Amino acid sequence: MTQDSASRTHQNFIGGKWQDSISGQVYPVTNPAHTSQVIGQFQSSLPQDAENAIAAAHEASKGWGSTPAPQRGAILYKALEVMRRRAQEMAEAITIEEGKPIADSMGEVKRAMNIIEYAAGEGRRLFGYTTPSELADTIAYTVKRPIGVVALITPWNFSRSQYPHGSSLHAS
Hints:
two-stranded antiparallel sheet, alpha+beta
């Protein structure tokens, strides 16, 4: 962590843009192992910020749902590659933020990568089925599509290994 990152004010990412919270207020996050070390300033978000994020995600999900499943899987594989390249950096950030041993932090990153890899593979495993119809010359079949926006509340100490579960719902 650099001195620059300690003074950095982090923003919310909503609708493809970084932005301050509606409250206009921030709070410091410190390293639990060195409580005088400020990691950065973070947004004091309000319910309206969450509602704006949900609305933006809902709007984006329309395009995501019409994207063929193998392409959705390919996008998740690209995210996995970014995580592979930055795994050590992510583990160090978890350790500084949460105070857990680096081995545990790396395990959390690897668990998140495993979930994303599985979800990405679902893009090629989405099989529907056909059923007999009571109508002549009619075929009844299923098409699997993403169900939409999913909100997750994760445990503070294993958050990175939990959020990929939401992506797995979207990949299938």
